[in-house]
Amino acid sequence: MAPRRNGSLRYLFEDFTFDTERRELHRGAYVVPITPQVFDLLDYLIRNRERVVSKDDLVSAVWNGRIVSDAALTTRLNAARNAIGDSGETQCLIKTLPRKGFRFVGEVQEDVDHKAKPVGSAALSDSTTRTQATAPRLSIVVLPFANLSDDGQDYFVDGMTENLTTDLSSIRGSFVIGRHTAFTYKGKAVDLKQIGRELNVRYALEGSVQRNGNRLRVNVQLVDAETGNHLWAERFDKLVADLFELQDEIVARLANTLETQLIEAEARRAERSPHPNSMDLYFQGMAWFNKGPTPDHMARARSFFQRAIALDPGSVEALVGLAYVDGMSFSLTDDQVAGFADAETALTKALSLAPDNALAHMLLGCTEICTNRVAQGIAECERALQLNRNLADAHATIGAAKILIGRAAETETHVKEALRLSPRDSGVYRWLHWMGLAKLMIGADAEAVAWLRRSLETNRNNPLAHFHLGAALVLIQELNEARAAIQEGLTLDPTFTIRRMRRMSDHPTFRAEGKRIRDGMRRAGVPEG
């Protein structure tokens, strides 16, 4: 039995129109297929969006009080989420509150006095205008890449577009237009601002692929679909060996780079918001985090994440962000045990809300690795890679873990895999730093200097990399340069001391090499503390 209706009513949220008279769900100009029972479930959640509804409420309203298993209810909820582009991980629209119930948390506009009419391109012109201002965050369409070669390999170019669409969908909180809709624009001269209005997305990605002999060139550009401004562009030139292996590599690189670019774009938007919500604050926190682990950057990032959690205690993104800060700040504070404990608490809560959050699993692995539980930590990172094959940071973190158990010679393989997947990642400076540390651990001091310099060329806002570089320079007898490196590190973190370099592992090789590195830091001018 369907929920009781109070007259003709349409609800507008994100880029959807929920028409209770016609019993139809529209996304832009397209009808979204939906079963009657799932429609009724959505109807009840939207009408009662001001409160948390229990399982019993849903069963009474949608199933007329019949006995319904938890599995059946979960299946219908997942179907409702899929229909509106939500997921059990992001929960941007339908939020599950453990042991309490469910609530529709999306921003909804009611259109009570509309005239019933077909919801097509022309009929939607008014509602498109109304909803364009509220295009979903991280909403993007990947337009079919153009094949600039007359080689009959459209299948390869289309496959790249499809795979990139799939991989971008794994970005936390993203809303990616499906491939079937995106491919309706294939081969057409398009106005990206018009596409933004039609699909109600904030961003559009377009690109081209050209093959010349044994080389392949891929050009891509990210465009603000509201203004038409270009936000980012990249070109890949690669030798062709295995076409499909090459396709996987390029797609992974694009997906990882785009995640950083989209977060920066959302952070800039959030800065202009007079009333930021938890996601606005999360994006601003991540923008500060990505600048590098100085005390100021981490304090600013932590402040944004804490404000986001204050607004929404169940914000998985903000909980993970806070854990990121606590884990990265281990060298910025004397009380490192408390920092890792706080990170683990936040991650445990995040994973209770979103068990398949790959980044949360990876960060839990980091916390375990840094608290002398290396085997558990590596297993968590491997779990993260099962959930998100493109999570390059997990590969690099496994490499860092090997340092702590006397297997630093293996670190390079893991870091190079991370660099292959995401060479322009915001975390590259960390991975290069870990490579430098691994080289120090195996006594390859000149190589360590080269890797640490590469790390600092990528991002100079990493005090610990300056201190490790100073130690490495001492060990190759470059004392003046070593002292300069230490002074640059102390400028970023004036409170750093040798005492902060606490032992993270009891492995004898790690302890012996750690002592050698600390001695190098002392000789270069790091205070004892």
Description:
- The protein is α+β, with helices and mostly antiparallel strands.
- Among the domains are: 122 residues, Winged helix-like DNA-binding domain superfamily/Winged helix DNA-binding domain (Arc Repressor Mutant, subunit A, Orthogonal Bundle); 125 residues, 3-Layer(aba) Sandwich (Rossmann fold), CATH 3.40.50.10610; 82 residues, Tetratricopeptide repeat domain (Serine Threonine Protein Phosphatase 5, Tetratricopeptide repeat, Alpha Horseshoe), CATH 1.25.40.
- It is 53% helix and 12% strand.
- The chain is built from 21 helices and 13 strands.
- β1 and β2 form a beta hairpin.
- The longest helix is centred in the middle third of the chain and has 29 residues.
- The protein is globular and about 80 Å long.
- It starts with 9 loop residues before the first strand and ends in a 5-residue tail after the last helix.
How is this structure best summarized?
This protein has 529 residues and is of the alpha+beta class. It is built from 21 helices and 13 strands.
How are the SSEs ordered, and which strands pair?
Elements: E1 10-13, E2 16-19, E3 24-27, E4 30-31, H1 36-47, H2 55-62, H3 70-83, E5 94-97, E6 101-104, E7 108-111, H4 125-131, E8 139-142, E9 146-147, H5 154-168, E10 175-176, H6 179-182, H7 192-199, E11 203-212, E12 215-224, E13 230-239, H8 243-271, H9 278-289, H10 295-311, H11 316-328, H12 336-353, H13 358-369, H14 374-387, H15 392-404, H16 411-421, H17 428-441, H18 445-458, H19 463-475, H20 479-492, H21 508-524
Parallel strand pairs: 8-10, 8-11, 9-11
Antiparallel strand pairs: 1-2, 1-7, 2-3, 3-4, 5-6, 11-12, 12-13
